[in-house]
Amino acid sequence: FSTVSATFMVIVARTLDLMAHWNLYFWSCLVITFVVTAISTYLPPISKASKAYYNNQQPPIKPKEEGTRIQQAWLAVKRQSHQATPLFKNMWTHFAEGLEMTVAILPSILSIGFIGLLLANFTPVIDILSYIFYPFIYIFPIAEKA
């Protein structure tokens, strides 16, 4: 689950008039996602993936840590906080990288959308492709909203 998934879920919920049932919709999607992920790890090809390390390297040896899990977690947090970059430097780096990624990806997204718009408005491609759905509409009729 990510912020992109949640915003896309809002778009789908508004399109299907599910916003009145948002809580049920969101949590059921979340649970279904985790259940499907848990099940798919036991299915091939994921379950058949090799457990061997690359070039027959040995796995790293984990030191035995003492104390409860909460104490271990607290020590790990303290270690990580001392190694972390300063907050504002980290924020600036992520902002710059996000801007760079946006500049790199946005032209592709806009060009694909523009090509789709041209195909939908000035060619019969969408009309021809829509014939695929006629059997489904015949079997499962729905009232037209338009």
UniProtKB/TrEMBL annotation:
Q: Which residues cross the membrane?
A: 24-43, 99-119, 125-143
**UniProt superkingdom:** Bacteria
Q: Which UniProt keywords apply?
A: Membrane, Transmembrane, Transmembrane helix
Q: What is this protein called?
A: Histidine transporter
Question: What are the leading ranks of the lineage?
Answer: Bacteria, Bacillati, Bacillota, Bacilli, Bacillales
